[in-house]
Amino acid sequence: IIFFQLPTVFQLFGLVLVMEMTPMIHGSPTSSSLSAQLLRTREQCGAPLTTEQRLRLDKMQFEDVPSVQQFLHCFWSRLGLWQDNTGFQAELIVQRFGGAERINVEQAVPAINTCCARTKKFRKLYGATGWCYRCFICVLSTPVGGWYRRHMSDVINGNA
What tens digit of pLDDT does each residue of 104-130 get? Predict the structure, then answer.
């Protein structure tokens, strides 16, 4: 399996996306390389956001406005963890974020997939960007969301 590692840029929202893609050796990235990738992707995708929006994202507050929706879509798409036709790639998310050693796979995969299914109707109403946002907000309301918030806070604060 070949994954793509994205270049570095942003260091505010817990995740970083990059346009340029370079092959990465199979398996999940190390914790430090994943953290760097998340920060880069965040920086790149967050460039159009205001300082206030970036600060809210650092606090894991995701307002329902186009710029934040675009940020989330950019972030997850660039990481290769969101597909506009199918939604979040639940198994790949679990694998890339440390697998069963860090995430309860039996809980995470169904939670993510359920949110994708529940919110898919928004794809026709709001496009892929709006669907990605609504699916992400749904995932945040599950135990996976608690894990994500803790992990991203650690990444943002340099503890991951």
Answer: 899 999 999 999 999 999 999 999 999
